[in-house]
Amino acid sequence: MNYIKGHIGRMFVLHFNDNDILLKEFDKFAKKERINAAVIHLLGALKDGDLVIGPKKAVVPSKPNWVKFKDGWEVLGFGTIFSGDKGPQVHIHTTMGKKTKTLCGCVRRDSKVFLRVEAVVFELKGVRTKKEIDPKTGLNFLNII
Predict the structure, then answer these.
(1) Comparing C-alpha atoms, which of 135, 138, 140, 128 is closest to residue 2?
(2) Which secondary structure element, helix H or strand E, spans residue 49, and what is its range?
(3) Which domains does the chain have, with CATH numbers?
(4) Number of alpha carbons in the 13 Å side-chain half-sphere of residue 63
(5) Is the model's pTM score more than 0.90?
(6) Per residue in 83-130, pLDDT tens?
(7) Spatial separation of the C-alpha atoms in residues 28 and 45, rounded to whole Å
């Protein structure tokens, strides 16, 4: 385990509207505000999109389990923003529910907002981190530098 100590900087309250592509809008926000490190709390609903729900098998390299969802799901999520070679990188995991079904996974691709998603973003200051592709796994891992 490695760790670094920092403090909370700016705080942002955001809302996303019906049909917004969640990750695309977070990417635009993070670039505009020049966020290098932050945590995200969010809630609302997603209309349709894709999740990665774990690996197909616990082996390296792993293959992701892709799951499509549609027709509006309640969502509660947590995420991070950390810089990589291409600027800020958003990573969001959610727990989603519809009737008696639940999903939990990593939001991907063009997942769309249904009606509204609210988010609070806490910027982290004094932490030196970088997202980098791990050569062994091919995954984009957070590194403390």
Answers:
(1) 128
(2) strand 37-55
(3) 9-144 (3.30.1330.80)
(4) 2
(5) yes
(6) 999 899 999 999 999 999 999 999 999 999 999 999 999 999 999 999
(7) 20
